[in-house]
Amino acid sequence: MSRSSSGFVAALTAAAMAAVGFLAYQASANAPEDLGREPAAKSPGASGPESPAKPKPDQLPAHSGTGERVVYSLRADRVWLVGEDNRAQTSYRVTPSSVDPLPGSYRVTSRSESVVGSDGVPIEHVVRFAVTDGVVIGFSAAVDGSTPKPDPDKRTGGIRQSRSDANVMWKFAGEGGKVVVVR
């Protein structure tokens, strides 16, 4: 290859790379936030473009859908129960499980009034909505009212709530109800 043709190929390659980079930037700017991305490890105190601020308790997260739905923020460890008018009826903190659901939109697949959780704890008002890596994910309350942090060595999917919050979720999220998970 001559010196001038190798320079031409290098310039053409650089132009193609710039075009691909621009298109990727445009696509990311127009994509819904966090949907379909793998969960990232949570790092305490992280900030900057890779870790936007946690939503305020009364502020529904951006890109969390429309209509009646449960919104679960992985980053904030918080749930919002949203009515048809797109306004949060209530919001509260939860204790996440050791396995997070992927961000996206789901439907409540099943409910149980009272069972034993995957961690061996008696639970109530179970609202299941996802399966991640073979682990069933759902909201629940421990009958004894505890909300301990999950054992990181056990793969569990129970997102724990207080008993009173679980009662509100139980009344709100029937089978087929929408659940939106955001970062």
From TrEMBL:
Signal peptide: 1-18
Chain spans, region Disordered: 34-66
Keyword terms: Signal
UniProt protein name: L,D-transpeptidase
Organism phylogeny: Bacteria, Bacillati, Actinomycetota, Actinomycetes, Kitasatosporales
